Amino acid sequence: MNSLKVATVVLALTLSAFAGSKNVFLGEISDSQCAMNVHSLSRSHEEMIKSSTLGTDAASCAKACIRRGGEWVLRAGDDVYRLKNQAGIDLYAGDKVRVIGVLDLKTKSIDNSHIEIFPKSGHSAPTNNEPIIVVH
Question: DSSP 3-state assignment of 6?
Fold first, then answer.
């Protein structure tokens, strides 16, 4: 087994240990169309912004994609997690955030109960001894 496969297995086992309990996830609020390569080959907003296709910044691009049928997601590098509770997420479009919720590995979704801009003041710590899963 090569090192990439080993790392993937270790990450999956680590994440499965947190499944079913509330955890903290770090990433960017994006839309499923850009983040999942539906119309953006780079899996980001930059391509759409540069071509003046859908918006002038990450937030306006994501909102345009949502209007076209996309869903709000948490994008962390190449990893994308659907956010189950979609209400109010537009306020964080394009922002780096901290999401608290329960991870469902089978569906790659987070049952999110709280979202906030992260970091608030350059540094922050989890509350209530919550474990942090940093997805990048």
Answer: helix
| Mean pLDDT value across residues 116-130 | 61
How far is residue 56's CA from residue 41's CA, in Å, rounded to a whole number? 18
Separate counts of helices (H) and strands (E) for the chain: 4, 6
Radius of gyration of the chain (CA): 15
Q: What sign does the CA torsion over 119, 125, 127, 131 have?
A: positive
For Cα atoms 61, 50, 80, give the angle at the middle one, nearest 5 degrees.
45
C-alpha to C-alpha distance for 89 and 95, rounded to whole angstroms: 10
Beta-bridge partner residues of 116? 98
Query: What is d(CA 49, CA 34) in angstroms, rounded to the nearest whole number?
Result: 11
22, 36, 11: which is closest to 111 by C-alpha? 22
Q: Which of 108, 83, 102, 107 is nearest to 29 (CA)?
A: 83
Give the chain's mean pLDDT. Answer: 76
Phi then psi for 61, rounded to 5 degrees?
Answer: -65, -50
Q: For the whole model, what pTM was predicted?
A: 0.69
